[in-house]
Write a structure and sequence with these properties.
8-stranded mixed beta sheet, 9-stranded mixed beta sheet, globular, about 25% strand, homodimer, alpha/beta
Chain lengths: ~600, ~600
């Protein structure tokens, strides 16, 4: 029989995946949409590459949330589908996978589903395309293959058939016998996958996935409160079977473990450490680099100005608006190349913040680096990043800026923007967020550390697909969002040259900022054209808006709170910079991260 | 409050765990029995180490399968308990954890459970020890904390209380409110662990854990058969979302993927490759080494004799019984140091075996290494091990031994044992099994390869705890057990210097074999004394038997089919050797693997 493989099943760039599939003897591929979006190849180039390799493109996938929706929504869906059918014509693919809807607006109405799928098939037919409708095991109203087939049969359209997927069918325990009642010519496609039976019974859960209190989802605190009410006066003892801890060094794990019990005791009220002092902003970020030139070239092009130099050390202060960067060319520590070494957190009470950190087992760093320096409170985060609790130009408190002497600088071009006053278009206002890559076994520890030591809130974890692996990331923030730290980690130890740290700068006008950067000689990360074709299918933009984003390499996202536009510089050492314009938007562009990561791989490889 | 941590929560040797716990500020530890068994420290030394570190030993754990069993079984349990109480006295630990039984003989009889726990508490009381009874979430009859407490209350014994574990309580969704009804003085211990809520819904299962057909637990074959009956003539297409594949190189993954579809097509009868030719024995194993001396010293001490040398290459043949080893000092390939490079499989039809391997995408190796060599069929396994399909001294077939010229050798000592005839006590009969460490992302691929290409049966996977991580291993065998290959893999990429390959030799008398080896100057892996104390508690031995094992470093296990005795040499490069005596026993001593692995770490570190 003809054999095929979905590109999502393999690692790497789309081009690598196609080559590997052809060499292994496959006759065809399914092109997974995200692989196309992240590829610098045009659809025509992908078509030609497949032809050269002797591979058919037997399926384009997936098209989601199409059917059984209100009329207005369906009209938008048809517009989106037309874009995708045009793309498929360029690719030379004649079958598209439509997954059963998971959309919150989808209704439980088979007749409507059949009618709308019929309309979709009409449109597909105009392009010579067949629609293969598949029941996702977690579809909102259609989750079994026989249900999907009933809808297809009702629609009774020559360009509409069903797609069967062994995982979706067998994972739900459906009886595959009913497949034999479907005419073979109406089965447009057959996707195969096996899976280990979920061995996640309570025994497996216990033996492999326990974690320290506060790092999981069980209400351990409530349980401990109840035990204490009985008069129990024995120890609180941790018994944690965890595959990750088994591979990690015992010392740091033990500290993480003990911190979890301290936090627990604080929460239940039997221990009172110094209260959390929540930081109110980012005073500075410090980059440690063996060669300042590449970093300062980027900063200069972004409109930063070197305003001061440390009185005793090779550290320069670069400023724009309230964004302050220290560029340190002193001896580098354990990290190679340019990296983010320290974060200055604006603190209402630096001494109090440090006392709490110390009580919660954070390693305290020497208060003065040199005799003449201002006494600064600092601790080390689990990943080694130095956290300074400090004050910027505030009365009664040691001022970290006092260690720096102003250097002559012209307000070159438009010059640095001091304070919150009116800015030129595209000026950097402040640091929006800092993204720190964690050692792969310290992700849970880092989240607990930032929550308990700094008093920040931890948001939900999100998974992000990288061409060469999965990343998980989790943001910790203060209430008003003036401190946002994104912790991320790879799925397993691996090459992390691309899993770089980054610094994001907030601007009110990212288009202007990107143009200024480009005009100043900066190069933004190039984003594939396919990404913009997809944006055009997903959103409606004002005339010329999308072309502007495409020309500059600006990415776009939207959530319930507003819009988000952002773009990236090239990577220097282990760091890259981002410009973000968030108009109410609360996230970090996770939707765009796979495209960004693939683009970074392309640049690195190229 | 007093804080404590179970040693199982941390990585490393017991000594490292204690140090890490003390440095992080814990007041006490729970000693996990396996950590003690694997430690070279005596109980008194552990006690002294804890005292030096300021750590109490607040719990010894676990004691299992104690209560609600038939009388005879309970008498044996009390004997076992007495041994453990003696051990606890040496440790200076005064509380022991007893988990609710999971034993198949345990009966659902609370009164009997209470009565027997009362007897156990009587015995404990004699030693000044308290028994803390805990409901395992997966206990056979007692799985909730309130049930365990009712039994403790019924027993009403001062030396019997309950142990609460937040995981066991909350993972079952029990209401912790009832805890407040237990008098605090009857809660002897509180174990804490959190856990992520099982996110393994079908969506997570699909997005992270799909695998290729034949590598999981779904009946994909049956589904495909039914689809084919409909007349479907489209492609078989793989759509596999898998975290491991995302990180692995695309080329080998694609080959593995395509092989899975070929095997599937063979199974459903639409493709007919050459039939599997199941190997009937191990013709030889080939060690590649930059320095033959350490390996040949081991072989000599084990009673092997160098019998022949390859006519054109620096390869020696060493023999004993039907065990044949090639020691190759030619240029080493991709591996560092001494490693297992090739396996000769005795094949009824070498050409047929190679044709099948080739049809299933195994890389075929050149048939002749040199012009004068016998034509040998060989392919590469996924981990790079060369597999030769060959014949030893069989008519009509090229004989691999023809490439070797006999060298003069005395039947030194007792000399090599040729053929199956009567042997001196402790002679090596043949290769019992070969254990190959797989690259961590190729475990599923390797199992499918050995099953489909060689026609071997795959047994269930087992998890084995190493002091620095978990290992998973899975045996593939032919029907009569004359070919046994154990595939193993670490939980994630890590230092694998200890996760070595090994070769196990079968003998009828491992005690005699171990003595001969020692008398010939060989050194066996030293096994901690604590292990033998535990054996004494678990099994009854004839007089002097256990002392013999202890003196030699022989490990012991038993299954439903018979007994198993085995011992290990030191590691050379990436390889160590094992002597096994299996009297009906079908496993590989997985029960003893943690002790063996810890002992290997100790030797490496020491």
């Amino acid at each position: 029989m003809r054999t095929s493989i979905a590109t999502v099943s393999l690692s790497g760039s789309l081009s690598e995946k196609l080559t590997a599939a052809a060499r292994a003897g496959f006759d065809a591929v399914e092109i997974f949409e995200n692989d196309l979006l992240a590829s610098p190849l045009t659809p025509e180039e992908i078509r030609a590459r497949c032809a050269d390799l002797g591979l058919g493109i037997d399926l384009y996938q997936p098209m989601r949330d199409m059917e059984a929706v209100p009329e207005e929504q369906f009209a938008a869906n048809l517009r989106r589908a037309r874009r995708k059918f045009e793309l498929m014509r360029r690719l030379g693919a004649d079958t598209v996978l439509v997954c059963s809807s998971v959309h919150p607006l989808a209704v439980d109405d088979d007749a409507l589903a059949a009618e709308q799928l019929g309309h979709l098939a009409d449109l597909a037919g105009e392009f010579g395309i067949r629609v293969a409708y598949e029941a996702l095991a977690w579809g909102r109203h259609v989750s079994t293959y026989d249900h999907a087939w009933r809808i297809v049969r009702t629609a009774d359209h020559p360009a509409l058939g069903t797609c069967l997927d062994s995982f979706h069918i067998l994972s739900r325990g459906s009886d595959p016998k009913g497949i034999e009642d479907i005419p073979g010519e109406k089965i447009f496609f057959l996707q195969l996958a096996d899976a280990p039976l979920p061995a996640m019974d309570v025994l497996q859960w216990s033996r492999h996935h326990r974690c320290f209190p506060g790092q999981g989802g069980l209400d351990v605190t409530d349980l401990v409160r109840r035990v204490l009410r009985t008069g129990y006066d024995g120890p609180l003892s941790l018994e944690v079977f965890n595959d990750v801890h088994r591979q990690s060094e015992a010392g740091p794990t033990a500290v993480d473990a003990h911190r979890s019990l301290l936090v627990l005791q604080e929460t239940v009220g039997v221990w009172t450490p110094p209260a959390a002092v929540v930081p109110t902003g980012v005073a500075f970020a410090e980059l440690l680099t063996p060669d300042a030139a590449p970093v300062t070239a980027l900063l200069g092009a972004l409109g930063f100005t070197r305003t001061a130099r440390h009185r005793s050390k090779p550290v320069d202060l670069w400023e724009q608006g309230e964004a302050r960067l220290l560029v340190n060319t002193g001896p580098t520590g354990r990290r190679d190349g340019t990296g983010l070494a320290a974060i200055g957190l604006e603190s209402p009470d630096p001494r109090g913040a440090a006392r709490r950190a110390e009580a919660l087992l954070a390693p305290v760093l020497p208060r003065r680096r040199a005799a003449e320096d201002a006494p600064l409170e600092a601790v080390a985060a689990p990943d080694g990043t130095e956290l300074f609790f400090c004050a910027t130009d505030r009365a009664q408190l040691p001022n970290w800026r006092a260690d720096f002497a102003a250097v002559p600088h012209e307000p070159a071009g438009l010059g640095p923007q001091q304070g919150p006053g009116p800015a030129y278009a595209g000026a950097v206002r402040r640091i929006d967020h800092l993204a720190l890559v964690q050692p792969w076994h310290q992700f849970d520890e880092a989240a607990l550390f930032h929550r308990s030591v700094l008093g920040l809130h931890a948001q939900e974890s999100v998974d992000v697909a990288d061409p060469y692996g999965l990343m998980r990331s989790r943001a910790v923030t203060n209430t008003d969002g003036s401190v946002r730290i994104v912790l991320s980690v790879g799925a397993a130890p691996s090459d992390d040259t691309v899993h770089a740290q980054h610094l994001a700068f907030a601007t009110d006008d990212v288009v202007a900022a990107a143009r200024r950067f480009r005009d100043a000689g900066g190069r933004l990360l190039p984003i594939p054209a396919n990404y913009y074709d997809d944006l055009a299918a997903r959103f409606e933009f004002a005339d010329g808006e999308l072309e502007t984003y495409r020309a500059l390499g600006i990415l776009y996202d939207r959530d319930a709170y507003g819009e988000f536009r952002h773009c990236y510089t090239r990577t220097v050492g282990r760091v890259f910079l981002e410009l973000v314009q968030r108009d109410g938007y609360r996230g970090y562009g996770a939707q765009n991260a796979p495209v960004r990561l693939a683009a970074q791989h392309t640049v690195t490889a190229g």
